[in-house]
Design a protein that fits this description.
Order of helices and strands of chain C: HHHHHHHHHHHHH
Order of helices and strands of chain B: HHHHHHHHHHHHHH
Radius of gyration of chain B: 19 Å
Strand content of chain C: under 5%
Largest sheet of chain B: none
Shape of chain B: globular
Shape of chain C: globular
Number of strands of chain C: 0
Oligomer: heterotrimer
Number of helices of chain C: 13
CATH class of chain C: Mainly Alpha
Distance between the termini of chain B: 59 Å
Chains: A alpha/beta (488), B mainly alpha (314), C mainly alpha (353)
Structural class of chain B: mainly alpha
Structural class of chain C: mainly alpha
CATH topology of chain C: ABC transporter involved in vitamin B12 uptake, BtuC
């Protein structure tokens, strides 16, 4: 059995996401699809799974041409896609998630379903509580559930889209073993990622994409520099990072207990100083966000004290935190940071901190144009927030930051950005750091954490497992700690 | 006492139809705010058609048709045109109310047929329960079937599970090959048809005839509130409908006791019902429910997460 | 703006208007009435004489006041269905002043109007607090309060404020003449009310267009979480929106009891609240358009009372016209948006499943 994608084209507006992509994979292969964010990998896989339709080109599986106009066709053809954030139905039980959408008689036979779940899961050593709500599962466990489901439905092609973001090292090891087993059993496994090391570790063949086209293919093992060159087209040097002298404490937590729904962080004591960068590591929902929100004044500590710049702000309102020089940049750019429907100029008006009652629209335009220039935002003062690309939205958010910040709190600052945009973001952040700001940021990207942090707090199940010196730890140790285990 | 309970069960049947119909629609992710208008227009239509043709069955069918038609406009506007469901539903409400007044003008105060009484042979002889539950007519019995049918469908069948997925997270359902928008049309129209039947149940059974501005007044709003009160569960929605019936009867019984309030008492159940939502929504109770899983199941008022959103691929 | 866009926009309005017209004719045929005569009656009934024009303006006032207030609440992302109750609350407060306070008209009228505003503000804040503190959806909170308000009005009308002798749901006793809103000329044009309404529309327009308050309110309406993170006190702004709308609605209620009915009646809000929602929807939430659209709606409403008088048709034809028009315009707008989307996405846009 082999899978062939022939000359796939897909354009979104002006963007040529896939520009004549061809790909060929044999059964029993673990094939890697490597490329930067925005290279077109996700689009290609969405076409393969039927989620979107190609403008032209064809997909041939096992000699048969596939009509892929909807995911239904993909499912029938045996193509299963595991999304980066697995599409589970959070309030439903694990069992219902397993069964939803599967063929069968009119009645839903939960007993038989539970049995099938157990049997399929046992093949890989997964365990599930069929009656637990799916929202209680970690991202890694949700992945496992999805894989189990896709296998039970008879998938012949398994696509994994950036599967290792947000899972622990142990879960990653398990995942890789499972993928290896599946490939050995004759499945076609496509591993989509922007992480070189992982693709190098597990894949037998790699296709590299850049800006919508296939740049090259390689048989593994293959020298890293070759892959890098294919991915970026040139040698990319990230900017130099010089450590900064540390100053007065900016954020102090004194045995603070934080609680948000089911997450509790008990009695955390932490001091962050001017010029320091602290990274927060851990699985999604392990407490990083809770800490950031508490430091931003959006969450009141259950007990203990919280001081910003020496002032005790425990239990104070958000406005006081803002006045104290705290700035919080959440992960959801459009959900929590920007306002869809308002223009760039209007965003600057809102963020300005000015309080005049009447607005001067000419002045607002001028101000917006200046900022757009300064921050290289691709857009006009009248562009709406949602019309900007992810990278430009991040630039807009950074441009909206007030001039004097003492404490900068960031949630996933470079999520979904290509490496150039990510580097640009950190250049601006480091500028702030050099001006004396303290930075606390959460990230799922271990490389980012290791590169930019002075110290790293590893969260697990709400508590801080360990505080590491970034220069003295490794990706391996971090990966294990995230999963709750010490590196032995 | 039996007679009172029996009349509550009968009087609540239109609400049962409407509330369960809307529960289905909302479970699939669509808000059909036009219920108030649908109930009134379908009540008028049901009465008018059966008055003209002499057939109660045709009246019910026509009413169901009206409900389906209005619901299909909501579905179309939401799915194809990506318009705000609340806005379209609200406009349709007012339009349908005015249409019912205008087209129903010739039928005001006329005497028309009603659903013939049909006690179930053996069951209606059971002491107490027989009189309360089984001494009614097809319309009321139909409401029982709808409660049971909806519950079984939503929670015990495969299609029902698919439907829940459509309302909860349409992209996930779509990725599993479920035709999200096609099903949304279907269930919205089913819900609308049920609401239409509820309207006919009003003008052809509970309160025979068409009285402009009075027939089924405010029942549609109550049905919408009951869906929320019922936590998007047909059994709890039915409970809410019967509870409302009890409140209405209590208000009626209190009239001779408080003669000065006779104009207001009829309004009380409506206001109370809507304020019952306060209880359901109040942060206090939600926090309580969060802490105790058992209480959560009892009090849960979480709508399908995809409710009110339009689903599109890219 | 391209010429194409302008033509499309006009078509977007003209086509639904024509279609609504067609629907009206069809309905009239169905009801067995001569269409031309009926439409002629509509025209006569609304603008045919000075008295009728005055009636139309008298209907225009509360409708526009409510619509102006609703522009503000819509901007804040709220469906303020409670606006009907806010009108009633304003009417009740104004009635209290008319009954309990004595003095010349120059004192009494402004007091009544202020009381109306106060009543509306308080009633709206109730709905607002239910939403911000209780988490109750403003549609249902508003509906509940609508019921309570009309229940309260009825209670007062047949209870403590009943007509001397027989309690009647036709209303309280008429106010003394000092409490009657003065009119101008033989046709009794409600000049003061009109002036207040025009001022209200201008105020709302300027507020939403050119002030930081308006921009922040819009931010709250579109994305409350982002707005909050930007430092905007969302709860305060939501309540302010409710209060503003309530104030204008309450003013409308006061004008109704002072200028139109000269007493408190159960149907004092006259459906103007809900109709106001239609006006704002038709106006595309833009303050500049609500005055002319409200005028059209008012004319249709007033004119259609002639239909029941002369042709034995239910006056709800007017309501049908209004509803059909708004529905068609909304649908047309959605249709055009869809065409624009398809054009942008290119020939290969995916079909819905």
């Amino acid at each position: 059995m082999s899978l062939e994608l022939r000359d796939i084209h897909k354009t979104f507006g002006h963007v040529r996401a896939n520009d004549g992509v061809s790909l060929s994979i044999e059964a029993g292969t673990l094939h890697g699809l490597l490329g930067e964010n925005g290279a077109g990998k996700s689009t290609l896989m969405k076409i393969l799974s039927g989620f979107i339709s190609a403008d032209s080109g064809e997909v041939v599986l096992d000699g048969t041409r596939l009509e892929l106009s909807s995911p239904r066709d993909g499912v029938h053809a045996g193509v299963g896609m595991l999304h980066q954030d697995p599409l589970v139905f959070l309030p439903f039980t694990v069992l219902d998630n397993f069964l939803l959408g599967s063929p069968g008689g009119p009645r839903v036979d939960r007993r038989a379903g539970a049995r099938a779940l157990r049997e399929t899961a046992d093949r890989f050593g997964f365990t599930f509580d069929p009656n637990a709500p799916a929202r209680s599962l970690t991202v890694g466990e949700r992945q496992q559930l999805e894989i189990t489901r896709l296998l039970w439905l008879g998938a012949r092609v398994l696509i994994l889209d950036e599967p290792t973001t947000g899972i622990s090292a142990t879960q990653r090891t398990t995942l890789f073993e499972v993928l290896r087993t599946l490939a050995d059993e004759g499945m076609i496994v496509i591993f989509v990622s922007h992480k070189l090391e992982e693709v190098e570790e597990i894949c037998e063949r790699v296709t590299v994409m850049r800006r919508g086209v296939v740049v090259g293919e390689a048989e593994m093992p293959c020298p890293t520099e070759r892959l890098v060159e294919m991915m970026f087209g040139r040698v990319f040097t990230e900017s130099e990072l010089t450590p900064s002298p540390l100053g007065e404490p900016v954020l102090e937590l004194d045995r603070a207990t934080l609680r948000e729904r089911t997450i509790t962080t008990s009695e955390l004591s932490l001091g962050v100083r001017e010029g320091e960068v602290v990274g927060l590591a851990g699985l999604e929902g392990s407490g990083q966000r809770t800490l950031l929100r508490a430091a931003a004044g959006l969450l009141r500590p259950v007990s203990g004290r919280l001081r910003v710049g020496g002032r005790d702000l425990t239990g104070r309102g958000y406005r006081e935190f803002l006045e104290a020089g705290v700035h919080y940049l959440p992960a959801g750019r459009l959900e929590e940071g920007l306002v869809s429907g308002l223009t760039v100029a209007e965003h600057f008006l809102l963020a300005g901190g000015a309080t005049e009652f009447f607005l001067d629209s000419a002045e607002a335009r001028r101000q917006a144009e200046t900022k757009i220039d300064d921050y290289s935002i691709v857009g006009t003062p009248d562009s709406t927030a949602e019309s900007l690309s992810g990278g430009n939205q991040q630039r807009l958010l950074l441009a909206m930051m007030p001039p004097a910040i003492r404490l900068l709190l960031l949630e996933h600052p470079t999520r979904g950005l290509d490496i150039e945009s990510a580097d640009w973001v950190w250049t601006r952040l480091v500028e702030r750091r050099d001006e004396g700001a303290a930075i606390v940021f959460a990230s799922a990207d271990l490389d980012e954490l290791l590169r930019y942090s002075d110290r790293i707090l590893v969260f697990f199940s709400g508590e801080v497992l360990k505080i590491l010196d970034a220069r003295e730890t490794s990706g391996e140790e971090l990966g294990h700690l995230i999963g709750g285990k010490e590196l032995v | 006492m039996e007679a009172t309970l029996a009349s509550i069960v009968a009087a609540a049947s239109p609400l049962v139809y409407a509330a369960i119909g809307e529960t289905i629609t909302e479970k699939a992710g669509v808000v059909n705010l036009s219920l108030e208008g649908t109930l009134r227009l379908s009540a008028m239509t049901g009465f008018a058609i059966s008055y003209v043709t002499g057939s109660v069955l045709l009246g019910f069918l026509a009413a169901a048709g009206v409900g389906m038609l209005i619901a299909s406009i909501v579905a179309f506007a939401s799915i194809e045109l990506r318009l705000n469901q609340i806005a379209v539903g609200f406009v349709l409400t007012l339009l349908a109310i005015e249409l019912s007044s205008f087209l129903g003008n010739p039928y005001v105060g006329q005497q028309g047929p009603g659903v013939p009484s049909m006690p179930i042979p053996l069951l209606s002889d059971i002491p107490f329960l027989g009189k309360v539950l089984f001494d009614h007519n097809l319309s009321v019995y139909g409401s029982y079937l709808v409660i049971v049918g909806a519950y079984l469908f939503i929670f015990k069948t495969r299609r029902g599970l698919d439907m829940q997925g459509v309302g909860e997270r349409p992209e996930a359902a779509f990725a599993r090959g479920i035709p999200v928008n096609r099903l949304r049309y279907l269930y919205t129209m089913v819900g609308g048809a049920l609401a239409g039947i509820g309207g006919a149940a009003f003008s052809l059974d509970v309160q025979l005839g068409w009285r402009e501005g009075l027939t089924a007044k405010n029942y549609g709003w109550i049905a919408l509130a009951i869906v929320i009160f019922g936590g998007w569960n047909p059994i709890r929605a039915a409970f809410g409908a019967y509870l409302f019936g009890v409140l209405q009867t209590v208000a009626l019984k209190l009239q001779p006791v408080f003669p000065g309030l006779s104009q207001i008492l009829p309004l009380l159940p409506f206001a109370l019902m809507i304020f019952a939502l306060v209880l359901v929504y109040l942060r206090l109770f939600r926090d309580l429910a969060d802490r105790h899983p058992l209480l959560r199941r009892l009090l849960s008022a979480d709508p399908p997460s995809g409710l009110g959103t339009a689903f599109h691929r890219e | 703006m391209s010429g194409r866009g302008w033509a499309a926009r006009t078509a977007g309005i003209a086509v639904p208007v024509v279609l609504a017209f067609v629907v009206a004719v069809v309905l009239l045929q169905l009801a067995g009435a001569p269409p031309l005569e009926a439409l002629g009656l509509l025209w006569d009934g609304s603008v045919g004489s000075a008295a009728k024009v005055s009636d139309t303006l008298a209907a225009w006032v509360p409708l526009t006041l409510a619509a102006a207030g609703l522009v503000v609440t819509f901007a804040a992302g709220l469906w303020n269905i409670g606006v009907e109750g806010q009108i009633v609350a304003g009417a009740i407060f104004a009635t209290w002043v008319a009954r309990e306070v004595s003095g010349p008209a120059t004192v009494l009228i402004p007091l009544m109007l202020l009381a109306g505003v106060l009543g509306g503000v308080l009633w709206a804040l109730l709905a607002g607090i239910l939403k911000t503190r209780g988490g109750v959806n403003e549609i249902f909170g508003g509906l509940g309060l609508d019921f309570v308000a009309s229940g309260l009005a009825i209670y007062l009308i047949i209870g403590p404020w009943k007509r001397a002798g027989i309690a009647s749901t036709s209303g309280t006793d008429l106010f003394r003449s000092e409490a009657w809103l003065p009119t101008v000329g033989v046709a009794q044009v409600p000049a003061i009310a009109i002036g207040l309404t025009v001022a209200a529309v201008i105020l709302v327009y300027l507020l939403m267009r050119g002030t930081r308050f308006g921009l922040r309110l819009k931010a709250v309406g579109k994305n409350a979480r982002s707005a909050h993170l930007m430092g905007i006190p969302t709860e305060r702004y939501t309540l302010a929106a409710f209060a503003l709308c309530g104030g204008l609605a309450g003013l409308a209620g006061a004008v109704q009891v002072s200028g139109v009915f000269h007493k408190l009646v159960p149907s004092v809000s006259g459906g103007y609240g809900f109709l106001g929602i239609l006006v704002v929807l038709l106006a595309g939430f833009r303050a500049a358009w609500i005055a002319p659209i409200a005028l059209f709606f008012a004319a249709v409403a007033v004119g259609s009372t002639q239909l029941s008088l002369r042709l034995d048709l239910d006056s709800s034809l007017g309501g049908v016209l209004q509803g059909v028009l708004v529905l068609l315009v909304i649908l047309a707008g959605g249709w055009q948006a869809r065409r624009a989307r398809r054009a942008r996405a290119g020939p290969s846009s995916s079909e819905e499943p």
